[in-house]
Amino acid sequence: MQYTFRGSLLKEGGRTFISIPFNVWEVLGQKGLIPVKVTINDFNFECKLVPKGNGKYYIPIVKDVLKIINSSEELDISFEIISHLTRINNNSPYSIENPIRKIDSIRIIKSRDGLCGQGCVAMLTGVSIEEVITLMKAKTSLSKVIEALDYYGIRHSDKMVYKLKKDQKLPKCCIINTSGHLILFYDGKYYDSSIGILEDFDLNKITGYLEIIL
User: How do residues 105-114 score in pLDDT, each as one tens digit?
Assistant: First the structure.
């Protein structure tokens, strides 16, 4: 369902928003960060509505969007709820049913410092680190890694598992988070795109892992 209204850009500090002129809790029947597809003067983008309390919400306007729609005039605005943000996995030629490859082995792929997430994705997909960097850009975050996995059709668990329990074993394949540094575990070995293959690893350093479902 489309929700339509007219509104103006609102500046708060160094950020820009559009205030939604109705109680979102009452009209949409949802709370929290709500993923939506927004249209402003025929320009489309996706974002999550930002709650401000008591059903009041803002549409966040990032710099790239602001460059296109920046105006002191009232804007024609509409949005609709979506299940999740597609972002980089939008228009992917792959899917869970048609992944880029079947994961039956891992080849170490090196990446420079700060690109550990891209390195994990490259090793799982078998594509070059350059292609993954082009897709993900030069930023590593778990959310971006998950978007890239979805783009390539790599099946994974729905959420991270935090803190290994005593005597708990890692799944056959997973991405491990070690205080912000991501490495890949596959079939008993640890693949760190910064340094290479590790036969052993201190499990106490693991802050969480995302299972890759083979």
Answer: 999 999 877 7
All structural domains of the chain with their residue ranges = 3-85, 116-211
Cα 131 to Cα 150: distance, rounded to the nearest angstrom: 15
* CA pair distance 50, 54, nearest whole angstrom: 12
**Whole-prediction pTM value?**
0.61
Q: Are the CB atoms for 18 and 77 separated by under 8 Å?
A: yes
How does pLDDT run across 34-86, given as a tens digit for each residue? 989 899 987 888 888 999 999 999 999 988 788 778 777 889 999 999 877 76
Domain 3-85 fold: Elongation Factor Tu (Ef-tu); domain 3 (2.40.30)
Q: How far apart are CA 172 and CA 66, in angstroms?
A: 44
SS3 154: coil
% the chain with pLDDT above 70: 95
CA dist., res. 21 & res. 5, Å (int): 8
Cβ count near 27 (within 10 Å): 12
Picking from 97, 102, 99, 98, the residue whose alpha carbon sits closest to that of residue 173 is 102
Distances (CA, A) of 53 to 33, 58, 161: 12, 10, 30
